[in-house]
Structure formats: C-alpha cells, structure tokens
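re the bet — no i am not wrong, look at it urself. input seq straight from the record:
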Amino acid sequence: MGKMIDAHIHLDQYQDEFIEEVTKDTPMLQGLISVSNNLESCKRNLVLSRDFPNVFSAFGYHPEQSLPTESEESELFAWMNLHLQDMIAIGEVGLPYYLRKKEKITMSEYEIYIALLERFVQKACKWGKPIILHAVHEDAEVACDLLEKYSIQSAHFHWFKGDRKTINRMIDNKYYISITPDVTYEEKTQNLVQAYPLELMMVETDGPWPFEGKFSGKVTNPIMMTDSIEMIAHIKNISFEEVSSKLLENTITFYRLNQ
C-alpha cells in the first residue's frame, strides 16, 4: 500500500484519542496538513504540529462564518506573523459560498469577505507561503482574480467545484486541487478528476466532514483516501501505485515538505 498525505484536514476538531491513533498507528499516512478556522484553531493546530512530527499546520480564518472584528483580524495576523516558521501555509481562507446561498449574508457583506481574502493573499505574497482556498463554484473566479493580481502561484483549491472555463484557467495557472472521498460516488467530482492533470492533484478528507456512499455513518478517517486513489486510478486508467506515488510527490513538492 502506497504512502499518503492528507492535504486538507481539520485535525484540531477531532478527539485526542483519534488524533493519537491516526498519527501513530496508520503506517501508510505520511503526513496531515491541518487547516485552521480561527485564532483558537490556529493555536490548537500549532500544539498538534509540535506534538506530532507528521502534522503540518496551516493558519487562517474559515470564510463560512461571521467576519472577524477588526481587533480579531489584527490579533490573528499578528499571531501568524509571530509563527511563520510553524506555518506550512495560509489556510483555510476564501469566500462564503454556502452562507451566501443560504442568504445569511448580503452582497455588501460579501464584498467585505472578498477584501479579507485579498489581505490573506497579500500576506501569502509577503510571507512566501502557499495558500489554501475555500472558493466554490463562481467564487473560484474571484479567488483567481486575486491570485493573478498578486502573482501567486502556490495556490491549493480544496473541495473545488467549478465550471470548465474556471477549470481551464486554474490549469493554465498551475493551481492545485485536492480530491475528497466523494469522488467514489459523485459524478461531478469524477468529471473534475477526468479534466484535471494528475500533476496538479492531491487528496484530502476535509475531516471531520462526513461522507456518503460506503462511508455513510462513519467518522471521516484519512484511510478513506485509499478509496479516493483507487477511483482516481480507475478514471485516469493508470495503476494505483503510479497515482499514489504521484499524489504523494505532488503534495511534498507543493508544501515543500522535503526542505
């Protein structure tokens, strides 16, 4: 069985027992990129990355929640600046697609989220860090605009959903995507895998987010990525071993884990 890295997981949201088990007793799991939701989440992920050598922390502010106050944002950026050496990437950051669809925010508020994302993109440029994006459907176009504005190349779109025009734009810019276990049962995700180059692909769980199909009712575990890799291999019509090896190489290269 090939080695794997979970390119996007909210490890800080799991129970301690699970974290111990998955980090120490899963031989094929070479690493986990644990993303943050807010400052407290950042602090928890920092502790996890210090306690477990195969956990790598990303610091940011998840967009599918209320905007931070001005003081909260300032405190977050100051804290991130103090912990640059502990930060593998900026993330998870992006735009509130689902809040907007549920009419939980107004268009004027949406503009403020865009401005916040731009400040994170500016930090990625200044600090020389990769950025992990939650930018779904048409939000991905806005994210691409900002990335291009600041000439950001190290961009990872997790849970990506978008049209073919945006997919082509992202491929041209060599932005990475990561595939979740829903590839085993979602046709749209399977079509994305068909369209996107393997060279720009990683795998993730977005755990503890739950999945359906054969995973229904189960706690999301990085071991589920084995099924994702099998499906990617089937879609690309190449061997499991080749896909597993390439995805691992991609993740190590993107996150500079071999430095």
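see?? The beta strands are 4-9, 29-34, 55-59, 87-94, 131-134, 155-158, 176-179, 201-203. told u. also The chain is about 45% helix and 15% strand. so pay up
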